[in-house]
Design brief:
heterodimer; A: 199 residues; 4-stranded mixed β-sheet; B: 700 residues; alpha+beta; 44-stranded mixed β-sheet; 44 strands; 58% strand
Chain lengths: 199, 700
């Protein structure tokens, strides 16, 4: 009788679980994706990526491994295993990433000067324009405008690629933390009050 | 606009001083004759309240007197002053002269840093001539001296200002404060101005001024100046109908940044001058003989008519730019503004002369190119896109007028770093926002030609801009092309009809078929589309077909290990991003009914085995198969369907547990069987690279 009751409660719980479906922003996966992109863009001056990450490349495997793989397939249905939790690798993202990486080579000097820094909304802002010679201010303006446009597009595209345009805010927040944590020593960033802090 | 504000301010200051002196004179005369009492005096232009006059009369030629005014209102100037004191320590109140040789006036006013200033004047009562001086007027953190003469309605005024601070001057009135807030200007001004007029009309102004340490900048950093120094002389003369201004401005030091250009004034001082005619209603401005010379860079002449408050303010304009060193102008003036955009990465040389004529609705631009060269520079490892050298000719563009032919010739050039372009010429028309080729042109490309039958660019500079191109390639040797692209030297020819190439919204679409005659067979490239071909992230889509390539020459070119026979194949839905394959469906296989001699060498066997995993027969055979140099085969084949970095592999046909990469025939028979259904694409490419660049393992 007791076991019947437990089964009943369990069924109710299951039913309840079926009715309320919340899709939460996959923060950890997003962080990992942001880390990868930011690392690539900032290059050597960024925080070194964790070494020894798993080699994702597929190998030519001997036929005998097939059984083991099939067994694994039973445990993990192929469709679920194939779909990543967080997709930040679309053509549009790769394009933006390549453009930002190339631009970073020109922005780097301005970060070092303290003229610009990472803002709270995951963009690049002017901190001290007077640190830049007049002759270079046009270049800085053009670079910032292009960079911020690309960054805005990047956050939007990542949210879109994951089927949740409303995640843009979360994606931006994730990137904001990642830019700041990967900034080189001496660069500037904005704290939550909008004040500039040197790393 | 700035000029008129400046002028208004000066008129105010002059008027104030002049009218107060005039009052003083009339008042003094009145007291002498009218027995003036303390009370109120007024006219339509002024009003005086609480007047006290004290007289110390020692002798007619040495009199001390003091005039105190509780409130002075000058309605014409919309100004009022409280507690004005004129204190003359030594003067004369005589029958003929009223004068003050040594006096002081106190005029409290926000414009003045100190209310006291030195005063002297002399009035001839017979002739009515009044002359005088106001000295040590402390204003705008500097000093101003003024002298004046009034003679029967004619007046002359000289103002000499020293070390006046622009920001203090601007802070005196609301518009000035707005300028301060928007532009943060600062400068030191020295000024010498002579004004003359009749009654209430200003007739002539001559001035010379120096501006030192001028800096300004808007909050967005779009406009900025630092450390600018300027000298200006000018003459303004007026008639009933208009004002004429002759002016010369010299900029000698500092830097200037605008959205259009940057100027290092110290390196290239600027001289700007000309005649301006402004109608008395301030509705039109005519520019005459305006010239701008920038040392070693630009020499420009300009004339035209401007209509203020009109839908088309520029009524008529002629601009002539003498041949200028385009490389220096680009590098010094334009590149700093364009850096960080695709327009900011060129190298230029040669000269350009330019003339622009605008008249009503029509506009005509003539550009003359003299040994002009253009090349994009290498920035951060990105490849150069194009270059064109020793360009000469004329570009005639117009809007709304008669279309004229243009012509350009060049001696050499390049595309994508090493694809050389030979001497050529284009004849075209440029009108409105359309560019159109008017004669077929043959452009030497490597050892062949690109023949252009049609080239039309429409809606230039608009979002809907479009390029249409028809032409064909006269064969270019693959040897030259492969070397230019840094590939393994290839033999064969590249040719093709390009009946329709369009460029719209960043997308190049080729309607025709590019034919590559190579390895004794054909490669056809169809449905070619590229996006951002010269951008940071080029993308390309195409379908490719291979017909009867000779494997012997193919394998020997890539040191893959000799295979003889023929090869068909296709690469469908090829998609490249940044020149890296993202997706494709490719298969390469022995053609049906192939009657060629089909042999495969040991080295090739081994390389294929490494690629696809050696089959049982292959590995077992090695020990004694080593005695044979080549093996016969029935068919070979390999295919890959690439998605998400993973290849779905297929072979020439199904085999037990796998697929044939090589299906042998005869004795000794060798089969290579692939077992892996999927392969990691980057790794596969790496293996292919290793195979084609090394001699590979040897079967023993």
């Amino acid at each position: 009788m007791k076991s019947v009751r437990i089964a009943f409660v369990a069924s109710l719980l299951l039913l309840a679980a079926c009715v309320t479906i919340n899709i939460y922003f996959p923060a950890a996966e997003a962080r990992e994706a942001a880390e990868k992109i930011v690392d690539d863009i900032l290059g050597d001056e960024a925080k070194q990526a964790e070494p020894g990450s798993q080699d994702q490349s597929m190998d030519f495997k001997p036929a005998s491994q097939g059984y083991a793989l099939n067994l694994l397939n039973l445990l993990i249905p192929p469709a679920e295993a194939a779909v990543p939790n967080f997709d930040a690798d679309t053509p549009a993202v790769r394009k933006l990433q390549a453009a930002m990486k190339q631009r970073h080579a020109q922005l780097k000097g301005f970060y070092r000067l303290g003229a610009i820094g990472f803002t709270q909304d995951a963009l690049v802002g002017v901190r001290k324009l007077s640190a830049v010679p007049l002759k270079q201010r046009g270049q800085l303006k053009n670079l910032l405008s292009a960079e911020n446009s690309d960054r805005n597009q990047l956050y939007k595209e990542i949210a879109r690629a994951n089927g949740h345009p409303e995640w843009e805010k979360d994606v931006r927040a994730t990137f904001s933390k990642t830019w700041i944590s990967n900034a080189a020593k001496g660069w500037w960033y904005q704290n939550s009050q909008g004040g500039w802090i040197q790393k | 606009m700035l000029f008129s504000r400046y002028q208004r301010f000066r008129l105010t200051a002059i008027g104030l001083a002049g009218i107060s002196l005039l009052l003083l004179f009339r008042l003094a005369a009145a007291i002498d004759q009218l027995n003036l009492n303390i009370g109120t005096l007024s006219s339509s232009a002024w009003r005086i309240e609480q007047l006290h006059f004290t007289l110390d009369w020692d002798s007619p030629t040495d009199t001390g007197y003091r005039l105190e005014i509780g409130r002075l209102e000058l309605s014409a100037l919309n100004q009022s002053f409280d507690n004005v004191v004129v204190d003359c320590r030594r003067g004369e109140l005589g029958q003929r002269f009223i004068s003050c040789e040594e006096g002081e006036i106190q005029l409290p006013h926000p414009l003045l840093d100190r209310s006291a200033m030195a005063l002297s004047f002399k009035m001839d009562r017979d002739s009515g001539v009044l002359t005088g001086k106001l000295r040590r007027i402390a204003t705008a953190d500097g000093l101003v001296n003024m002298s004046f003469t009034f003679n029967a309605g004619d007046w002359h005024l000289r103002i000499h200002g020293q070390a006046l601070q622009l920001e203090t001057l601007l802070a005196q009135w609301p518009q000035g404060r707005q300028v301060l807030a928007d532009w943060h200007p600062a400068a030191r001004i020295n000024l010498d101005a002579r004004l003359s007029g009749r009654e209430d009309r200003l007739l002539q102004v001559n001035w010379s001024g120096e501006l030192a340490g001028l800096s300004f900048g808007d909050d967005l950093g779009v406009y900025a100046g630092e450390g600018l120094a300027a000298r200006q002389t000018g003459r303004l003369s007026g008639s009933v109908k208009n004002w004429q201004i002759d002016t010369e401005l010299t900029l000698t030091h500092g830097e200037l940044l605008t959205p259009v250009f940057y100027l290092d004034v110290a390196a290239h001082p600027v001289e700007l001058g000309g005649k301006l005619f402004l109608d008395s209603q301030f509705k039109t401005l005519a520019l005459q003989d305006v010239h701008l010379q920038q040392q070693e860079l630009l020499d420009l002449q300009l004339q035209g008519d401007l209509r203020f408050a009109s839908d088309r303010p520029l009524e008529n304009l002629k601009l002539q730019l003498q041949p200028f060193p385009v490389g220096d102008v680009y590098r010094e003036m334009l590149q700093p503004v364009w850096a960080g955009t695709p327009w900011g990465r060129f190298e230029m040389a040669g000269e350009i002369e330019l003339s622009l004529h605008l008249s009503g609705e029509t506009m005509k631009l003539d550009l003359g190119l003299i040994d002009f060269s253009l090349d994009d520079t290498q920035i951060d490892g990105s490849t150069r896109r194009m270059g064109l050298y020793d360009v000469n000719g004329e570009l005639k563009w117009n809007r709304g007028g008669e279309v004229q032919p243009s012509r350009l010739t060049w001696q050499s050039g390049h595309m994508l770093e090493h694809i050389d372009i030979g001497p050529g010429r284009i004849d075209f028309q440029a009108a409105d926002n359309t560019f159109r080729l008017i004669r077929q042109t043959r452009v030497p490309v490597l050892d062949g030609f690109m023949v252009v039958d049609r080239l039309v660019l429409e809606a230039l500079g608009e979002p809907s801009q479009k390029l249409q191109f028809d032409g064909f390639l006269e064969p270019i040797s693959m040897d030259a092309l492969s070397r230019a692209l840094g590939w393994v030297p290839l033999s064969g020819k590249l040719s093709g009809m390009i009946p329709g190439l369009t460029y719209e919204n960043g997308l190049f679409t080729v309607d025709g078929i590019l034919l590559v005659r190579i390895f004794d067979g054909d490669i056809l490239i169809k449905n070619l589309q590229t996006r951002e071909l010269f951008g940071v992230y080029p993308q390309l889509q195409a379908d490719i077909e291979l017909h009867k390539l000779d494997l012997d020459s193919l394998t020997s070119t890539f040191s893959f290990g000799k295979i003889t026979g023929r090869l068909d194949g296709y690469v469908r839905d090829l998609s490249l991003e940044a020149w890296q394959p993202v997706t494709f469906d490719a298969r390469f296989y022995t053609p049906e009914n192939d009657d060629s001699r089909r042999r495969i060498s040991q080295k090739a066997v081994d390389n294929i085995s490494n690629l696809g995993g050696a089959g049982l027969s292959g590995s077992l055979a090695r020990s004694f198969m080593g005695f044979f140099e080549t093996f016969r085969y029935k068919r070979i084949g390999i295919g890959c369907r690439l998605q998400r970095g993973v290849c779905e592999m297929v072979g020439a046909g199904e085999a037990q547990q796998g697929y044939y990469l090589v299906e042998g025939s005869g004795i000794p028979r060798i089969d290579i069987i692939g077992y892996n259904k999927t392969a990691d694409w980057p790794r596969l490419v790496e293996q292919l690279k290793q195979i084609t660049t090394s001699d590979g393992p040897v079967i023993e």
